[in-house]
Amino acid sequence: MGLDCSKPAPEMLKTYGAHYNKNVMFLCNHNSCRSQMADAWLRQLRGSASVGVASAGIVGGTAVKEGAIAVMKEAGIDISEFSSDAMADFKPEDFDVVISCCGCGSKLDGDKEAWKQRAVFQDWNLDDPPAIDPGDLSAYRRVRDETKAKCQELLASLS
């Protein structure tokens, strides 16, 4: 019986874990725009760096915003197959670095407090393009580019 290479092995679907030197979690309210762009940028920029990446929302299950998909495609990155995941599906102790993309750090209290107690916690407080104008891709582009720059800074700090 041969190996089915048409589907990735389950362990290859997971893009973070003990086999990485550092694991980064990007959090946002819904995991539908800013955290998705950050996730994609860090995956793209990490090269051979041993950095695991995941993203989640305080509330998951929201479709990835079409504007985010479009502007990332302009940058040569396809996030059309990304899914919106809930932070409840992850364990804080699996991550060394937690980035709040939207200023949601203030919502991480009570049982969510452990997310702020990782080795590195940053609140990037990126603007929310759909809240500015859902049909205006210039807001998405600005946040995309700002997110890329922040991911480059983050990678430099991890090496």
Automatic annotation (TrEMBL):
UniProt record, GO biological process: response to arsenic-containing substance
Domain of life: Eukaryota
Keyword terms of this UniProt record: Arsenical resistance
Pfam family membership, one: LMWPc
Domain Phosphotyrosine protein phosphatase I: 22-157
Entry annotated with the keyword Acyltransferase: no
Keyword Repressor included in the entry's annotation: no
PANTHER family, per database record: ARSENATE REDUCTASE
Full protein name: Phosphotyrosine protein phosphatase I domain-containing protein
Species name: Effrenium voratum
